[in-house]
Design goal:
Number of strands: 14
CATH class: Alpha Beta
Strand order of the largest sheet: 5-4-3-2-1-14
CATH superfamily: Carbon-nitrogen hydrolase
Mean pLDDT: 95
Radius of gyration: 18 Å
Number of helices: 8
Amino acid sequence: MSFKVAAIQMDIAYKEPERNHRHAGELVEKAMQHKPNVIVLPETWTTGYSESVFHEITRYAEMESGPTMSVLRSWAAKYGVWFVSGSFPEVDGANIYNTVFLIDPEGNITGKYRKMHLYSAMDEHIAFTNGHEMPVWPTELGTVGMMTCYDIRFVELSRTYAVRGAEVIFVVSNFPNPKVNHWRTLLQARAIENQCYIVACNRVGAAENSTYFGHSLVIDPWGEIVAEGDDSENVVTGIIDLSRVADVRKKIPMYSDRQPQSYPRDILLYRR
């Protein structure tokens, strides 16, 4: 089975959710010209990502039933495509999470992932509560998981997805300059070591003191780059062929050769 993904490299208007809703709608319409099966948006696309946003996060946080999800679900149903929603601040009771949703072509919420690894160097941990669940979802697109930006530096998350059956991992991000080499290298490593597709959507433009390089990526289970954007606002498309996952896993039988009974428990406890 194969399908087409479209990652929207969006230039986010800083702290202007309504403007970003309108602009994202224009870019979704542009993406549909490529006839994708899945559209992916970047991290915190309603506000941008900065310490300033984090220190006033309650101003931007929304419930799952709020305006951002309403417009995303309407786009999914209108165009009949899957959406990886990008993330936005989701309020649930006393907590606020950096959350990304998986939405089906009828506009139904299939699942959500709350960012687990929060970037303390920019006070993200002050604004948000860490997510704790690592779900994968069996869908008509294969079995999928999701990660958000900083998560790509943590091999435990992607490996958990892989051993739970993930064939495609979607990544939504605000990955800044000058880390483009980290971005590409880490994502290729996650694809190779887990023998799965990685579809990573990164923003472009600027927010506060950071600039963003785009370079959204579609990477196959062999680590080959199927598609890569540049540093301009654009739609990056690529084909996912799930038979490629099975072929690579057969060629290198990594999963059957794993030795989890020998892996030290202290790796879970180590702090430096």
